[in-house]
Amino acid sequence: QVQLVESGGGLVQAGDSARLSCAASRRTFSTYAMGWFRQGPGKEREFVAAISWIGGSTGYADSVKGRFTISRDNTKNTVYLQMNSLKPEDTAVYYCVCKIQYTHTIVYDAAEYPYWGQGTQVTVSS
Fold first, then answer.
1. Whether 84 contacts 17, CB under 8 Å
2. pLDDT at 102
3. Which of 44, 58, 69, 95 is packed most tightly, with the most Cβ within 10 A?
């Protein structure tokens, strides 16, 4: 079992930056592919970004490409989501996810991730 705890959400203004963090409980963190999903008000859950088990590959939703960056620090069992040039449409609950994976394939399907954090709210005001 893996526990994921997100932090870093809050209220920001359009154009601002914010960084989300997700700390994982397992020491074998480096063997997990990590990702972020989000669900905005009245919207379906959607993929945001993912990173492979040792950071060899990353993938992004088109809506955040060029603005968001996912990274990981395996020495701290932590994955980050740096969000720049935030827009009101980025307002959502952001969820950290992970799955055991030993390849660099980026997984975009939420159903493939068995472990989810509790979510952190990001609100972008216009």
1. yes
2. 83
3. 95
